[in-house]
Amino acid sequence: MECFEVNILGCGSALPTTRHLATSQVVNLRDKLYMIDCGEATQVQMRRMRIKFSRLNHIFISHMHGDHCFGLPGLISTLGMLGRNGELVIHGPKETETYLRPILNTFCRELPYPIRFNHIAPDQHELIWEDRSVSVYSIPLKHRLPTSGFLFAEKAKEAHIIKEMTDFYQIPVRLLPSIKRGEDYITPEGERIPNGRLTRPASTPKKYAYCSDTAYYEKIVPIIEGVDLLYHEATFASEDAARAKETFHSTARQAAEIARKANVKRLVIGHYSARYEELHTLKKEADEIFPGTILADEGMTLTV
């Protein structure tokens, strides 16, 4: 069965704690892996969660704060030691390449695989990558420096063949791809067999939106409207709303407000401040606005 999952590697904020690790996620869509942000200890978490390094070909960096990118040098080096030879694409603001080039020149001169940087404009909502499985769009966020969220939109799957019907009409195998794409079948006698009799519709494509780091920002609502799963930062509780405003972060209540306004199906919050040893207050605040809010945790895997 084809999957669309989000693996939470780290969901803490900038100050390290023993409770949570720096931000990183891996999206698994149809067995292709896409990393979002790469804080410290990301590669260790990949080991713990048994995520295959070899299937990771794209890394998306939201912004140039260390808790979202300090894990890149170690991960890049490890991929080389594992014998990687295929291209690795790093999508992020142009400063991502400025940061990594000296490190690559110092520590990774004999890297056995190429790295390509795809510079994105954090202030633009646009398509930044697509393949046969997914289209990835940038989401302009509101933070202390240019920051982008990411929208992963699954591409429509082909219809499912009803084997009993194709066998009944003795449809040649060479015609099955066109039938999966929606064409009718014309029998040797000239009879038209409607496609709907030969196929079942594929499941509706899913969408996942990642929004961290950001202050409360209603301009993202039309972009993330109706997504199946939204990850929105909730660094602070409402009692620390002044601090959230000062640092361009969100409270749990504000994250829930965005989810409610955007009519998303499910909300998961994370990027917790180190000041909170317990997270029940954050969940309670979010649940009051968006019931069923999920608290992110390291090692968690969510099906989109």
From TrEMBL:
Residues 205-272 form the Metallo-beta-lactamase domain. This is Ribonuclease Z. It holds the Pfam family Lactamase_B_2. Gene3D superfamilies: Ribonuclease Z/Hydroxyacylglutathione hydrolase-like. It is an enzyme of class 3 (hydrolase). It comes from bioreactor metagenome. GO terms for molecular function: 3'-tRNA processing endoribonuclease activity; metal ion binding. Homodimer. Its EC number is 3.1.26.11. InterPro entries: Metallo-B-lactamas, RibonucZ/Hydroxyglut_hydro, RNase_Z/BN. Keywords: Endonuclease, Hydrolase, Metal-binding, Nuclease, tRNA processing, Zinc. The keyword Lipid biosynthesis does not apply. The gene is rnz_2. Its cofactor is Zn(2+). CDD domains: RNaseZ_ZiPD-like_MBL-fold. The keyword Cytoplasm does not apply.
